[in-house]
Amino acid sequence: MPELTLTPASATVLFVIACLAGYRYRSVWKAEGPRWQLWVFGLVAGAALLVLGLTPLTGG
């Protein structure tokens, strides 16, 4: 079974996606926007951060 790892570039892309989704989550929350958007942005940010936290990076 192949080992899952992230390259530094893919980890950076995931981090940027998590930051943007978190920013949009906060914007929708403060504007009291639709609940479904809160769920979408929250799940995207949470999933990206979980992947970043639980998947090892390659060595170089």
Structural topology:
Elements lengths: L7 H23 L4 H20 L6
Describe the structure.
By secondary structure, the chain is mainly α. The protein has a domain at 25-54. Helices cover 72% and strands 0% of the residues. Helix 1 (8-30) packs antiparallel against helix 2 (35-54). The longest helix has 23 residues, at 8-30. The chain is elongated, with a radius of gyration of 14 Å. The protein starts with 7 loop residues before the first helix and ends in a 6-residue tail after the last helix. The mean pLDDT is 93.
List keywords for this structure.
60 residues; mainly alpha; 2 helices; 72% helix; elongated; membrane; transmembrane; transmembrane helix
* Class from helix and strand fractions: mainly alpha
**Beta fraction of the residues?**
under 5%
Element order: H for helix, E for strand: HH
User: What does the average pLDDT come to?
Assistant: 93
Q: How many extended strands?
A: 0
Number of helices: 2
Low-pLDDT runs: none
Helix content: over 70%
Could you describe the largest sheet, including whether it forms a barrel?
none
Q: Rg to the nearest angstrom?
A: 14 Å
Distance between the termini: 22 Å
So what's the overall shape? Answer: elongated
What's the short story on this structure?
The protein is an all-alpha fold and 60 residues long. Helices cover 72% and strands 0% of the residues. It has a domain at 25-54.
